[in-house]
Amino acid sequence: MNYQKALKQRHAETGRWLLESSQYSGWKEEGRTSIWLHGIPGCGKTILSSTVIEDLLRFRDNDPGKVVAYFFFDFNDAQKQNPELMLRSIICQLSNRCVKIPESLDSLYYSCNKGGQQPSQGSLEETMKQMIQEFPQVYIVLDALDECSDRTELTDILETIAGWHLDNLHFLVTSRRERDIESSLETFINQQNMINLETTLMNEDIQKYIQHRLRNDKKLQKWQKDPGVKQEIEHTLTKGAHGM
Fold first, then answer.
1. Comparing C-alpha atoms, which of 27, 29, 26, 45 is closest to residue 37?
2. Exposed (0-12), middle (13-18) or buried (19+): which is 132, by Cβ within 10 Å?
3. Which of 73, 84, 158, 239 is the most exposed place for a label (fewest CB within 10 A)?
């Protein structure tokens, strides 16, 4: 639901700067790499996540060996704040791309008394690891890490995943730039792949959106008759947005 909502809100052609960047293209092609997109609230992190996921799904369609899984943490939904539920969601998405039930998942089920008991977090992590290893390439996108209810547990999970050193795993996360998250991510993400969204790149996306609204919104058509005012609106809104 979060993905579809963000995709619907995205204006066409925004986010192209990311998809066409050397960091992103390198991340898509090289395994065992991670990207962190960080920025202030309202700068478009979730919209960018949906842009990335859409691009990856198209990328996957041309190669059945590629698998895409994602999770959106969300302040507005308690079910989307729990790091263990994120693990379960990723495992579920990976299993859906399998021709048959993976042996590791089958073993987990039977070790938990055929569903009579809940698995430990450690067993979920190990199952996820073994499942990832069964695919040629796996892309995982996690949005809004800062909206997780237990960030200490979440960062522990992320560091565990990074410690697997899987050559087929591509990891992309987004969040606000908060110290606990940054301290964790900088242990396994290269500085060049820590992308600050508070730049003129976001202003270009904002400007594209404003230009589209001024051109196509019926309520704003009256400004078409006065190019000077239209230009002033565009300039003032872009400058005043401060990346939001």
1. 45
2. buried
3. 239
**Whole-prediction pTM:** 0.88
Pair 180, 230 in one domain: no
Tokens linked to 128: 């996820």
Inter-residue contact 130 to 98 (CB < 8 Å): no
Tell me phi and psi for residue 101, to 5 degrees.
-60, 125
Residue numbers of the domain that contains 220: 199-244
Locate the DSSP E strands across 108-165: 137-143
How far is C-alpha 42 from the chain's CA centre? Answer: 15
- Predicted confidence (pLDDT) per residue in 60-113, tens digit: 987 888 999 999 999 999 889 999 999 999 999 999 999 899 999 999 999 999
| Same domain for 217 and 183 | no
Question: Do 204 and 244 fall within a single domain?
Answer: yes
Q: In what order do the strands lie in the sheet with 33-38?
A: 66-72, 137-143, 169-175, 33-38, 194-196
